């Protein structure tokens, strides 16, 4: 089962990328994002894709332009996550055969992203929308729209977000911060997987 949990590895270094990626996959998380404002992100993405591209959906976050999309594709990434609903980025992602998860916060952004071909929507920052906001927006979105809550979410409030309509989550500092060991990441990932599986 591929869980709808995206690990956000902001700040990961290329020399630790493969080890961290392996720990996440071992724990049961196989959707992995390296934000482009990390150190040498394309190197990390390429190393992870070379090692685990058949076993995981690996890609980039904080993707702001079509050129970024092209660079990630060249590195072997298959997923594009962005902080905004840039339709050029969505279109470039889909043209390259990549999964697209743009950031949204309003109904206008949600529908614009879906019309442009987004595979799912990243509610960011989700603590600004809140679960009441998600319930309201979910009522008007197409029934199978996948909404990922990102920002202020974790095992303690997964149930609230799923009840409000979230399909999945993006987890950043709750799973990785610079300085975390591979063992730290694996332990946090295991806790997240256990909490997610209880509700799935």
From TrEMBL:
UniProt KW keywords: Carbohydrate metabolism, Lyase
Pathway: Carbohydrate acid metabolism
Highest taxon, organism lineage: Bacteria
SUPFAM superfamilies reported for this sequence: Aldolase (SSF51569)
InterPro entries reported in the protein's UniProt record: Aldlse_KDPG_KHG (IPR000887), Aldolase_TIM (IPR013785)
A GO molecular-function annotation: lyase activity
Family: Belongs to the KHG/KDPG aldolase family.
Subunit structure: Homotrimer.
Name this polypeptide is given: 2-keto-3-deoxy-phosphogalactonate aldolase
Source species of the chain: Litoreibacter albidus
